[in-house]
Amino acid sequence: MTGRHRSAVAGAAVALAYLVVVVLTPVVTGRHTRPLFDSFTPSVPYHWVHPPKEFAASNVKPPATESVKVPLGPTGSANAGPQTSDTQAIISLVEGAIPPHPPDTEVVVTFDALDPATLGPLPPNESPDGNAYRITAKFSPSGVPIAKITKPGNVALDSGLGADGALFSADDGKTWKALETFAIGGGTRVAAIFTDFGIYVPARSPNAPKPTVVTAPKAGGGSGSSGPAIAIGVIGASIVAVVVAVIIVRRRR
Q1: Cβ distance 111 to 134 under 8 Å?
Q2: Residues 17, 89: one domain?
Q3: Which of 61, 164, 202, 227 would bridge 159 by S-S if both were Cys, CB 3.0 to 4.6 A apart?
């Protein structure tokens, strides 16, 4: 096989591989996007502290407490994005958001996952859509608590069904303040400006989009099984096409 023929086969294989990804992306993710510009990973189920009954059987509880260390130097804290291990709660800290505090060398950010039902009632017409997170910080090794940051960042919260807002409490869940938020992550995550440490919770209002409930496909087929069947068919057809291309090139040598 000449170099030109090898290149042709390789090119055909790459093109077909990309075609497979293009076709499988909406099948696997349920989103009609170009795979080069979007995630190919299926959505991860929400980890509830206290799940609704329809999610209880398959729920995986998040860790009750998680801590993340942020370096602290002469100019303050480093640029960082402390988050929970399941990324359901994330804050962004720009460089110097927390001022220097000699002789401390670190800031310890702690996330406590809470059941909103154990806290004070939310404002009228608002309902929690996931866990509440108590986000606190302290200097280390002194242990001096930090109430707020000096340069605004962001907080992002995953929600269970599709929140359209986020609430903040500075008094350990007794009273709440509505935050100006925007949706990210396909509508299941909300983000807001972050300046104060305290408790944050994603919330749904009466105007929130109707959630899409995904159920497991029934055994024995049905529409729920068409995705894997299509995927297998596309992969099989692509493999056959690559093989045919190789045979044709070999015959033309």
Answers
A1: yes
A2: no
A3: 202
Residue 126 burial (10 A CB sphere; 0-12, 13-18, 19+): buried
Backbone region of residue 79 per phi and psi (left: phi > 0; alpha: psi in -120 to 50; beta: other values): beta
Residues 6+ apart with CB under 8 A from 122: 116, 128, 167, 176, 201, 203
**pTM more than 0.85:** no
pLDDT digits (tens, 9 = 90+) for 176-185: 999 999 988 7
Euclidean distance between CA atoms 106 and 252, whole angstroms: 67
Summarised one tens digit per residue, pLDDT across range 25-43 is: 334 333 333 333 333 334 6
Question: Got the DSSP string for 18-68?
Answer: HHHHHHHHHHHHS----GGGS--SPPPPP--SS--GGGTTT--PPPSEEEE
Would you place residue 253 in the very low, low, confident or very high pLDDT band (cuts 50, 70, 90)? Answer: low
Mean pLDDT computed over 21-27: 39
Backbone angles phi, psi at 27, to 5 degrees: -70, -45
Specify the number of domains making up the chain.
2
Range of the domain at 230: 3-40+223-251
Query: Do 200 and 84 fall into the same domain?
Result: yes
